Amino acid sequence: MASTSAAGPQSVELSQLPLPQLDSLKAQLDEEIRILSESISHLKIAQQKFVDSKEAVKKLREKKGTEVLVPLSASLYVPGQLESTDNVLVDIGTGYFASKSLEGAEKYFLRKIEFLTKQIEKVQPGLIEKHRIRQAIIDTMSAKVRGQMSSQLPAAKA
Questions:
Q1: How does pLDDT run across 113-147, given as a tens digit for each residue?
Q2: CATH number for 121
Q3: Does 24 fall in a domain?
Q4: Does Chaperone show up as a keyword for this record (predicted)?
Q5: Number of domains in the chain
Q6: For residue 48, what are the domain limits?
Q7: What is the pLDDT of residues 56-93, one digit of tens each?
Q8: Which pTM was predicted?
Q9: In the chain, N or C: fewer CB atoms in 10 Å?
C-alpha cells in the first residue's frame, strides 16, 4: 500500500508488494469502482429525468385543449383537459414547485442537464483510472502466482 507523509502520497511498485497486500488493494479498488459506478448511474438517471421533462415541455406547446389523465395519487387518475399551456409548475426539489413559462422551464431543465453532464465528466476519469489500476494489480498478482507455481514445480521434481 502507498504510505503517506506530510508531502502527500508516495508511489510503491506493485511488484514489490506481497500477494495478500495486492489482494487487499484489489478489494479496496473493487469497492471504490462500485461506488463510482453507482454514482455515475444515479447521475445519469437524474439527467434522463430532466431530458424527459425538457422534451415534455417542448411537446406541451401544441397540446392546448388535449385530454389528459391527472394523477391524484401513484395509482389514481382522473380525466382532465389542458386549459393553459403558457405556464407550468416545475419541481425544484424537496417538495418545492416554481411556476415557469414554457421557455423558462426549458432553460431550467437545460441548465440541470448541463450541470449533471459536467458532474458525470468529473467522475468518469476517476472511474477509468481505478479500472486501469485494478487491471495492473490483477496482472501483477497473476505474474506472482505464475512465478510461485513455476518455482514450486522444479522443487517438487527434485
A1: 999 999 999 999 999 999 999 999 999 999 999 98
A2: 1.10.287.370
A3: yes
A4: yes
A5: 1
A6: 20-146
A7: 999 887 777 889 899 999 899 999 988 888 899 999 99
A8: 0.77
A9: C
